[in-house]
Amino acid sequence: MRTVVLTMKASVIEMFLVLLVTGVHSNKETAKKIKRPKFTVPQINCDVKAGKIINPEFIVKCPAGCQDPKYHVYGTDVYASYSSVCSAAVHSGVLDNSGGKILVRKVAGQSGYKGSYSNGVQSLSLPRWRESFIVLESKPKKGVTYPSALTYSSSKSPAAQAGETTKAYQRPPIPGTTAQPVTLMQLLAVTVAEATPTTLPRPSPSAASTTSRPRPQPMGHRSQEMDLWSTTTYTSSQNRPGANPGEMDLLKPGSVLLDEGFVPKEELSTQSSEPVSLGDPNCKVDLSFLIDGSASIGKRRFRIQKQFLADVAQALDVGPAGPLMGVVQYGDNPATHFNLKTHMNSQDLKTAIEKIPQRGGLSNVGRAISFVTKNFFSKANGNRSGAPNVVVVMVDGWPTDKVEEASRLARESGVNIFFITIEGAVENEKQYVVEPNFANKAVCRTNGFYSLHVQSWFGLHKTLQPLVKRVCDMDRLACSKTCLNSADIGFVIDGSSSVGTGNFRTVLQFVTNISKEFEISDTDTRIGAVQYTYEQRLEFGFDKYSSKPDILNAIKRVGYWSGGTSTGAAINFALEQLFMKSKPNKRKLMILITDGRSYDDVRIPAMAAHLKGVITYAIGVAWAAQEELEVIATHPARDHSFFVDEFDNLYQYVSRVIQNICTEFNSQPRN
């Protein structure tokens, strides 16, 4: 009986193997007859983000209209995976707004992404993101099979809504190969093989996955039969995420395959909230828009003005590390709608701008500029030291009050004024204009950089990019360079025997009192000092200290030297040791304090200083020679040379020196 049973089992196994071989042969013959299906390029919508697509490299077709700013892009050339795929393609120049096919390749995450404006798309900055991608022309590589259906991290993908098939994750096939499904017959063959000493060939290590992905653990016990049937359409182990080289664990107890809708842990941690840009660090300005709310503008043009503001907010990439923006509306009187710290990103700004109501009244621009100068740029309103203050004034027609004096005071306070004038006065209306040529009287420079004119409100959008570019051009924001933050000041101090220790401390207090009035930093005013007798000594250079407390402490530490008086040699020494290291964009100021006649000639050194653009102030005490002071001082001497009979009266000239420095600075041509 045992012999009969064994014979029957052997017959069954033999029949099964015959069927298996026949099936494999039949499959091969069928495969020869079936032509490879033509590759279909998947289509996606404009709002699909690269991070939602698991495939590491794929070709897709984008629709038209992805240039719309509502589709966010982060980065330039290399984009954060939170970006819209198709909008990034337009930004990169691979596509235009009409859409088309692109090749997308995932790359490593970056430590930072820089925003930029390109091809009608404003991308945003981002500090860091876990994954990136690049966009290329849709030229497939030879031997590489691209997916006809994309794999999404969530079953509720936008592409799925558009009718595209969503499937479980599947690694891209090895170049030159095609992933084959594991059939039920193949699984049965594995089961039979486990009962026999036959060894099945292992997958090649090169074909195995090198990266493991987290997989969900089974909930409760699943029978082997259920596992077997659930894997009948899954790919072989060499294509399965998490597969190890040399293993085929399709029936391993407890294993669960990735199924539709599974979101890996690292995806879950980043999908809940959209990254907030910190702003473009290359455009760190504090910006106030003065918008026209007068009755003459009308409701329609007021809406156009608000849309323009919203577009500017989007293009600027607002954030705490970049530009900040507030809005003041003027009519009869100005009123602040929100200040610099109210809204810290572009999207919130756009929402707030949409809610601004029109005030009506006259068009009192001068009053509004005065209001902004006195009230808007304060620390309480979010003003940042070191960030240029910029006001953009929008005027429909012409102002109903004068702007020149208010603008002059704003410029002298370091406010950069831009004017956008729309639909100016025609010939028969010019008689009503209160102040002809008002824009040129108001702006920081009259060379056209600070003023933009538009013939019609419907052409206002054309000024968007020129305005954004100019507002962010820190090197040309001339008014942010005031008399107090734009100089290299070198003090040349007489330390001769006739001065004495007590009077020398009085001179140092005079130097301290002047220095305290300036904004001191690496990028603002810098202070240096030389002491001289017969010889010269560099006490500290312009690059030694970069804060006001450090400068004031350094002045206190200067020790009295004592000796003769060689003022000419001291001027030459200061030119070589101090001003040779002055920055090109700084005004060079030399303030020389002496109490006597020089033992050497001062004419040639003084002329050398004047020729090198060093503005020289000469301050004489007690026995100083008036004619020498006038030779040393820059022309006109009456504004640059001062004489005081006693050291104790030096303090009286602190405000006079500061005032003359600022008056001279502010009288520079504005062209």
Describe the structure in brief.
This protein has about 675 residues and is of the alpha/beta class.
Kindly describe this structure:
It is a single chain. Helix 9 (365-376) packs parallel to helix 10 (404-412) and helix 13 (501-515) runs antiparallel to helix 14. Strands 10-9-8-11-12-13 form a six-stranded mixed β-sheet, with helices on both faces. A six-stranded mixed β-sheet has the order 16-15-14-17-18-19, sandwiched between helices. The chain has a five-stranded antiparallel β-sheet with strand order 1-4-7-3-2, covered by helices on one side. Residues 1-6, 30-34 and 155-273 have low confidence and may be disordered. It has 19 helices and 19 strands. It is globular and about 120 Å long. Among the domains are: 50-136, LCCL-like domain (Ferric Hydroxamate Uptake Protein, Chain A, domain 1, Beta Complex), CATH 2.170.130; 286-476, 3-Layer(aba) Sandwich (Rossmann fold); 487-667, Rossmann fold, CATH 3.40.50. Strand 8, helix 7 (298-316) and strand 9 form a beta-alpha-beta unit. With 671 residues, the protein is an alpha/beta fold. It starts with a helix and ends in a 5-residue tail after the last helix. It has helices at residues 2-33, 85-92, 158-161, 184-194, 224-230, 265-271, 298-316, 346-354, 365-376, 404-412, 438-442, 464-471, 501-515, 548-556, 567-577, 603-611, 626-632, 637-640, 654-666, and strands at residues 57-62, 75-76, 78-80, 100-108, 117-118, 121-122, 131-137, 286-292, 324-330, 335-338, 389-396, 415-422, 451-454, 487-494, 526-532, 536-540, 587-594, 614-621, 641-644.
